[in-house]
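Why do we bother with holo predictions? Because pocket geometry can differ from the apo form. Keep that in mind while you read this record for NAP.
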Amino acid sequence: MSDTHTVINPATATPVTEVRLATADEADASIEAAHAAFPAWRAMAPGERAGLLRRFAAVVDAHVDELAEIEVRNAGHTWGNARWEAGNVRDCLNYYAGAPERLFGRQIPVPGGVDVTFHEPLGVVGIIVPWNFPMPIAGWGLAPALAAGNTVVLKPAELTPLTAIRIGELALEAGLPEHVLTVIPGKGSVVGERFVTHPLVRKVCFTGSTEVGKRIMAGCAEQVKRVTLELGGKSSNIVFADADVAAAAASAPYAVFDNAGQDCCARSRILVERSAYDKFLSHLEPAVSALRVLDPSDESSEMGPLISAQQRTTVTAYLDEVSVAFSGSAPGGAGYWVAPSVVTVDDPGTRIWREEVFGPVVAVMPFDDEADAVAKANDTEYGLSGSIFTTDLARGLRVARAVEAGNLSVNSHASVRYWTPFGGYKQSGLGRELGPDAPMAFTEEKNVFIAH
Ligand code: NAP
Ligand code: MG
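The structure, written out:
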């Protein structure tokens, strides 16, 4: 028996549409169809596969506004973010369209013959997407996987299936053969679970909570299935007293409250050198008050609602345990709103300092010197991203090298670019996405020796 899910606009708590959820049997049928489509897709001439990916990118480009509008309604994203996200899918497709014609192997000198290597596709790749960035996370997986010659089954989050469903339709419109990319809306415990257990799925790319990620990894171990994990974070924004402290404070809200804090890269810890601590907070407060927290259907909104009532309950439970130093505004009424909130923390054991809140909440703590800043930033099981503000670039580089995280920025908060590798240290994940090597992660390296 199949179920349906009512998609909700989180800004207004009103229904958008109904989506039918796939059963386990339907998931299996899609996986088997993707497996049947694999031989022809991998055998397609590289230039032809590249051309289809470029056509797919062009069709996505022609639908950026439509996709963005869907995401504004389905996920409560701001218009600016949603347009960027749809554009990011296009850009990933274009970037990885360069890969089919450049999947180079090597010729390795050995005695007695000739030795060559090949990068061969895996087969069916299963991509499990969370609700916080439905479009980019889909694109980061599907574009390099398809480019490397795999077929893809993709499960969007139950809460945010609409843009993925549309992208699946656009793939067919662009001329991708049927079953090369299949979007399967459904529950994690049903469809996601089949990606892990079905033997024809050769790799799982999972983005979501560390808790579910560990279970996916354990499940994949059963078949020694390849797995990439992009999990949670508790990233630090480290501000040294020699930085432009006012500018660092003005930019800090955007590094944590963007997407209402529902961002694995959110700089949810701010570490400020003690001599600049008061000055930083005095500039942070007006910046937080000035943040435009509005229904994202308003083009000027800078922050929207949380994704669900449940996520709001989770976030407000953290806030109930502490005293909030200051907060910004949020609309009243229906919708899953939480005002952006700043908490000062002395005890590093405080739950809000240690756990990924995944909401518009930031915790601020002073530090004494460079070594103390690094120790405090590294005092976490996560290691995804981080920012360092200083005018001393030698120090910027030293601290960037010392922080145990995959994506650091000096005098910037940007951590995601499709040109550069992205992924986590420690319990933030396993493997890397994006960057020039991403297609390789969707291949096996085969070695062939030919005797003279
Ligand atoms: P989640 O449960 O990890 O969900 C992520 C994806 O995994 C969804 O598509 C989900 O499907 C699927 N899934 C769930 N259980 C599964 C299973 N047993 N097998 C296979 N797939 C499964 O995350 P959440 O419950 O939405 O959010 C909880 C917390 O996770 C958040 O508060 C946040 O701290 C963290 N989170 C982190 C990220 C990130 O980018 N690192 C993203 C999202 C959430 P359904 O949703 O359809 O069940
Ligand atoms: Mg869950």
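The chain has two domains: 4-231+427-451, 236-417.
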